Amino acid sequence: MARIDLKSMTIEELQDFMSELGEPKFRAKQIFEWLHKKMVNSVDDMTNISKSLRIKLSENTKISGVKIVQKLQSQKDGTTKYLFALDNDNLIESVLMRYSYGNAVCVSSQAGCRMGCSFCASTLNGLEYNLLAGEILSQIYEIQKDIGERVSSVVIMGSGEPLDNYDNVIKFIRILNSPMGLDIGQRHITLSTCGLVDGINRLRDEDLQITLAVSLHAPNDDIRRQIMPVAKKYDITRLLNACKLYSDSTKRRITFEYAMIRGVNDSRECAVELASRLKNMLCHVNLIPVNDVKERNYVRSGESAINDFAAVLNSKGIETTIRRKLGSDINAACGQLRRGYLKK
Fold first, then answer.
1. pTM listed for this prediction
2. Residue among 106, 113, 270, 334 flagged as catalytic
3. Which residue of 28, 179, 257, 330 shows the fewest CB atoms closer than 10 Å?
């Protein structure tokens, strides 16, 4: 029988599990804090619980984790990219980004991805594995241990589509937000999706205050379907309607990610059309110079084209920023370090 992952259990699940083991419920809080506040990787380190309970846990559970395989640090901005191995030998990536307001970590929710976006390296080999909540958390915990500093914000924007691993990702958010763990506020957690409408609709009912980031990357279906296979299932009107319902329900502003690809989606006409679609929506557009991926043919838009695109959106009342490119000297974009390592 497969062992239960302790690190992936919510406090309520741990309390029920303690009852099943014939233990008092208060043990759940002790175990939870060992895992998520003190970040231990072994039940033997849980010194305030009885030896008999530690034996029960060793026999019936596991504690998921990750190990650092490779680490690259940018000489330009201090961004650090981690290649982690899971216990099942799958490889994932995480990125530490240092800002004046604190440390942010970008975590992976899957090993690989099946969404097929044509500008992304993560999806080149397809989906290999859905991470458990504990494995997503472990990326943050290992980075905190490595740098000896607290992580203050998290983006679920690494390898994988979070809403394609829905239950594990929601559990990850709730554990990360718990006062008995790292207690990272929901408004400091961002979930990025390529636009799975059914997942966005489910997320609307979770009563969360996280930031939703949607990879839009085009102002219409013709262009979007060229670069994002998901657009063949969910047209842009249906996607934007789901986004509007989400923001109306949560009162949270949605971020639309827009990768700037030269000659594909970066014209003034595209900017005007995008502004028209987003009019009267509680949103913000984040323009991203597309990453150079050897296996892809896209070239990032020039600086003047990006600035002109932003100017059009801002002039029409759509708040727009241009993402500062971090870690450019260490290939810090999603999937690049992992793919390079696998090819070797």
1. 0.93
2. 334
3. 179
